[in-house]
Amino acid sequence: MARNVNFDLSHPLMEAGLESPADEEGVHDSFQQLIAEHTDDGAESSALELQQLQSDLDEESRDNIPLCGPEHEHRRQGASDLECDGGEREMDQIQGEGWSSDTLKILSSMPSRTIGRNRGAIISQYCNKTLKLRRRRQTRPSIRDFSPSSRPSIRSYGMEGDTTDAEVSKRERLVNNLQNLPVSDRVRMLRGMPLSVAEKKEIRNLVMQKEKRILSNKKLSCYSQLKYYIIIAARKSWYSWLSFLHSLEPWQTLLKRVSGRFGTGVLSYFLFLKTLVFFNVFLFLVTGAFLVLPQAVHPPDEATETRSFSGLELLTGAGSFSHTVMYYGYYTNYTLPRRSRGEGRGQNASALSSDSQQFSYNMPLAYFFTIGMAFFITCIILVYSMSKTFGRSFRINKSHSILTMKTFSSWDFKVIKKKSVQIMSENICTQLKELLAELTQKNTKSTFCKRFCRQMVHGVAWTICIASTTGCMAGVYYFSEFIHKDLQQNYRKFEGNPLMKEARLLSLPTVVSLINLLLPALFNLVAWMEIYESPSVFAYVAIGRNLMLKTSMLGVLCFHWLGRVAPEYESIGLTCWESFVGEELYRFLLMDFIFTLLDTLFGELLWRLFSEKVLKRRRKPVFDIARNVLDLIYGQTLAWLGVLFSPLLPAVQILKLFLVFYIKMSSVMMNCQAPRKPYRASQMTTIFITLLCIPSLLGASVCVTYTMWSITPSTSCGPFRGLSTMFKAGKHWMEILEKDNPNLSVLSKAHTYFVENPFFLFVGAGIFLIVIYFHSQVVDGQRKIISLLQDQIQNEGEDKKFLINRLQSVHKQKQDAGKRLKSQDSTC
After folding, report:
1. pTM
2. Do the Cβ atoms of 261 and 430 come closer than 8 Å?
3. CA distance to 300, 351, 353, 365, per residue, from 340 (Å)
4. Could you tell me which residue ranges the TMC domain spans (predicted)?
């Protein structure tokens, strides 16, 4: 026989927080135990009351539905109007399908329909949870140990007074239970309560006040008071230290402001710039500690001609800067410390042999291994960062769930300052716009003619971009060849006027920087003709075209330095080609910074003024993410290329990045506007890190490795003078160690087989690539598992609907069978 379901929240079982039939049986068993204990003790009156309560509970658990409507007269009189209205809406929704009482009983036992009805039910539910947690934490004496008078009275169990008094008593019980819990469990319970922040704060204050009253009544010993004071002081110091470390993170407020006004696309540019700063700081610390500082403490013995500072050195990097720790040529080829001037001249092998008896600082080995380890550690950090960002950005995150989390769970209630609240609200608003834009984006199906025309336009656009890049690359190639031949023919004319020679050397960096400034504008014009519907696709296409331009320029320049200048440096009047290449890289970095300022001035500031004053429009230019990011990658590649030839070049790059950050930040805030179509740049950071790793660092590592393994160093400067290649420094050191101590011949053989043999280098690179491949496969497997779990969640909902419908159909079949039996009995 079908029975009704009790939806009344003021019911004692609902207030007790019962969430399953198993809990209900546990309560009934506990009453049976109490009855048995009372019977054994002879307390007949209490046993009669418990038996009466047991029978009341059994009767009330028979699923009576006190519906809130005029047709149901057995509704409880103590229910409030709010609960009546909520029950009416809920039962109308449930009975709208015409479900039976058995189906309604199952539906009423679901957690989503039994939790969170009103504040009293929530408090009662968590009161029971805290009570259970207390019972687990501490042992409780049996009820036999209490006298009958001290036991809780249940005479008026079924009688309820005012609901407000009941709620106050529940709150008091909850406060008592929370007060007896440890701090960690108490915080966890308060966080898990589905109440407002004000109510949680009120409950926490009540608990704290009660604790203070208890502590004030107790007389603590001096030792306990001192211990509490020390713990509180240590905790406050720890939190202050964490807050201080958090405040040391640079540009926090500025990044939040950019994210709130311009979205995640522009934010990704500044986060990438911040990442480059950290890489250069690491590189500067390594080279400064192991190369610059030892050489600065022990300057070389050779007397060098010093030139007066003219100011042009800031542009050219030459002049008085040439004979300083900034460039390769200043570093010595012997073991430090060494003070004899005459011994400093000579070949590297003799220098190494004469100093082998000293256990000091070998500058050639330090130079070689410092550069090699710096590149290796940077590669490890980049690959790790790339894998982490790849796992975060390419994880399957459906916009519906992210939108829900951002809408209901993104606000930080600890933020109280007006400015911080405004920044956070702008940030959340922009993120919601991006998510909504992603949800509303539709893939419209077009006809074959439209698709064919679109592909033709894309083909023409890419042809224009490739042709223009090829033409610029050929122009830079022939112009660099012209500069090289001009130096070969006229280098004697500039011996009396070196400033003129250095000024002429600025022509090649100026031409390359001008191409890097103008050609991306052509790419943007071509992309405007293509009319991309998605802003993210437009950004990725622009990144690809700018990457093609920067890579081609750097390839031509590396060929110019390593293929022309290094083999024929004496023909152009150079004594140290490594220092010359270092000066060239300094000039390229400086000219790149100058043209970045010009782009900010003319491309953003003057365009905004022209649009406002002349065109009378309020439109502002949109920040070009692709071009600015590729400019950063281009500059970082120059810095990595120049570490071998100029150990202090990372310091110049750090200063440049700091200036670029503040200049671009001010320009974005004043001169730019947010994209017209908001989009969520969830994978841009991963793309930037990948481009920084594979084309940039990999290309710089190949060039530096080729220089160390294949190109002959200068014979009159640097730590590798007199050697056939820079790589021979390690081999010579091993030979000297073996000659001085034959027992160390094993190290020489290990160096020969493991370091000089390229087979092990290829094996190490292969293992590294295999690890990257397996990590990518793991991430791909995680994506598939997440997709399967999301499908499973959807199938769970469908299964619930299916089971409810099947239960309803079975109930209808039973009703039809009963009706047929009744009709047959009546006919008989």
Report:
1. 0.70
2. yes
3. 10, 12, 15, 21
4. 576-682
Q: How confident is the model at residue 273 (pLDDT cuts 50, 70, 90)?
A: very high
Beta strand pairing status for 335-336 and 361-362? antiparallel
Task: Dig out the tokens for 343 from the structure.
Answer: 């011994």
Which residue has 């070998």 as its token pair?
Answer: 362
pLDDT digits over 194-234, tens only? 777 788 888 888 888 877 777 666 666 788 778 888 988 89
- Dihedral of CA atoms 212, 216, 218, 224 in degrees, nearest 10, equals 80
Tell me, what's the pLDDT at 435? 77
pLDDT in tens, 437-486: 777 766 667 788 888 888 899 899 999 999 999 999 999 999 999 998 88
Residues 279 and 692: their CA atoms lie apart, in Å, by 11
Q: How far is residue 154's CA from residue 159's CA, in Å, rounded to a whole number?
A: 10
pLDDT of residue 302: 64
Positive or negative: CA dihedral 295, 298, 301, 307: positive
pLDDT in tens, 309-332: 777 788 888 878 888 899 999 998
* DSSP code for 336: E
34: confidence class by pLDDT, cuts 50, 70, 90: very low
Task: Assign 3-state DSSP to the chain and report helix, strand, coil percentages, each to 5.
Answer: 75, 0, 25
Contact 369, 330 (CB under 8 A): no
Judge whether 643 and 371 are in contact, CB under 8 Å. yes
| pLDDT, tens only, 40-89 | 444 444 444 444 444 444 444 444 433 334 334 343 344 344 344 444 44
**Terminal C-alpha separation, the chain:** 24
Q: What are phi and psi of 701, to 5 degrees?
A: -65, -40
Q: What is the mean pLDDT of residues 735-753?
A: 75
Mean pLDDT, residues 544-564 taken together: 93
Residue 773 in tokens? 């491949």
CA 515/CA 511 separation, integer angstroms: 6
Q: How many CB atoms lie within 10 A of CB 394?
A: 16
Structure token digits, residue 580: 């010359």
Residue 362, phi then psi, degrees to nearest 5: -85, 105
Backbone dihedral angles phi then psi of residue 92, each to the nearest 5 degrees: -65, -40
* CA–CA dist 168, 280 (Å, integer): 62
Residue 549 has pLDDT above 70, yes or no: yes
State how far the Cα of 342 lies from the Cα of 593, in Å rounded to an integer: 43
* CA 480 – CA 451 distance, rounded (Å): 43
Give 335's strand partners: 362
What pLDDT does 115 receive?
Answer: 44
- Judged by DSSP in three states, 219 sits in coil
Query: Across-strand partners of 673?
Result: 622
Scanning 291-362, the segments in alpha helix (DSSP H) are 293-297, 313-316, 348-354
For residue 768, the 8-state DSSP code is: H
Q: What is the pLDDT of residue 805?
A: 81
CA dihedral of residues 340, 346, 349, 350 (deg, nearest 10): -50
Q: Are 313 and 320 in contact (CB under 8 A)?
A: yes
